[in-house]
Design brief:
Elements: H1 2-12, H2 17-42, H3 47-62, H4 67-74, H5 79-95, H6 99-123, H7 143-161, H8 169-185, H9 191-228
Amino acid sequence: MNRFSSRLLALAGLLTLEVVLGAVVFVAAFAVFFYLVRVVFVHHSVALDNWAAGVMDSLRLAHPGLTGPVRFVTFFAAMPFLLPASIAVPVLLRRLGRPREAWEMVFVMAGSVLLNQLLKLYFNRPRPTNALLHTFGLSFPSGHAMLGFTFYGGLAWLLARRFGRPGWVVPLLLWAGLIGLTRVYLHAHYATDVLAGFAGGAAWLLAFRAGLKLFWKEEVAVMGAESADPDART
């Protein structure tokens, strides 16, 4: 009985404000994703997509010189960038004596890539036909938005929680958001693809971080409780 109580107390200690807020944001991201699924695949509404495309077209006509910088920005969530970056960052973390964080980045990115591809295959939405650059694959959810949010959001989390640099959180998340906007500007994705990518990336990142945090802390807490409990050693 004492051992069971110790485990309950250890698990209850994990319900910090950070975990609760993470759970709330996860539920919100999950809800947004499935709301967009209903909008696109149940109601077949294109109102948001048409409005966003119109805004971007007006912006491009008013400032034609933006297209070059937009192509440059969108590259930073393309696989030719994310693949080497997802290797370089863990290597750097290992050199800094952070092997656990290195493996976290490897697994969170690998999981995001796999999840994104499974979702694309499941929803099977073709890309816009008027893209300003040649693109491959399916459209929903946007890989640039989902993988970019996972990568830069993961970096933001590491910098804030592990390296004491919370000032990087907002710039990195804004950068991920800007990359998502470039996909609509270039007609590489519909706006609903990008929003679903952000929601999917946020949900996956929070689920991964929460699961990892709970698993890691639970093991430490339970082991500590058992070592302090004489009955646990008999």
